[in-house]
Amino acid sequence: MDRRFIAVVGVFDLLIAGGLALLGALSHPLSVARFALFVAAGVLLVVAGLRESVALGSTILRWHVVAGAGYVCFGLAVLANGLSSVLDARGDPYFGGLFALLLAPVMLFMGVDYLRGGVHFDRSTFE
């Protein structure tokens, strides 16, 4: 599998954030947090998919660390999205809550594992 697939996931996150902005869903603080997390996840995943490493001051971050941070942001955005769906009277609490409970732990686990260096997920398939 090619590492550029991670960039495709990042573009998907940026499209979600763009849709949230175009729909005018940035009126509540939880919505702003959800938007910011989707943007952060998208940017981090696109950078991880396209670059081998990123310099942050005097520290060099390898692609899997940047991807891990992106997946953690994506998981937190899904949690915020589910929480927003459950708390909103117009939303569907069952679908949104169930979606968040199923997807967010997977994204958070993947993110933490990538941050640790790929203990459970074989990151050599992307290299």
- What share of residues is helical? over 70%
- With strands numbered from the N-terminus, the spatial order across the biggest sheet is 1-2
Number of helices: 4
Based on CA atoms alone, the radius of gyration comes out at 15 Å
Helix-strand pattern, N to C?
HHEEHH
- Coarse morphology: globular
Number of domains: 1
The proportion of residues in beta strands is 5-15%
Q: Determine the N-to-C terminus distance.
A: 8 Å
Unreliable runs, pLDDT <50, ≥5 residues? none
Major β-sheet, in short? Answer: 2 strands, antiparallel
Strand element count? 2
Structural class: mainly alpha
pLDDT averaged over residues: 84
Describe this structure in words.
This protein has one domain. The chain has four helices and two strands; from the N terminus they run ααββαα. It is mainly alpha-helical and 127 residues long. The longest helix is centred in the middle third of the chain and has 25 residues, at 63-87. It has a two-stranded antiparallel sheet with strand order 1-2. Helix content is 71%, strand content 6%. The chain crosses the membrane at residues 5-26, 32-51, 63-82, 94-115. Keywords: Membrane, Transmembrane, Transmembrane helix.
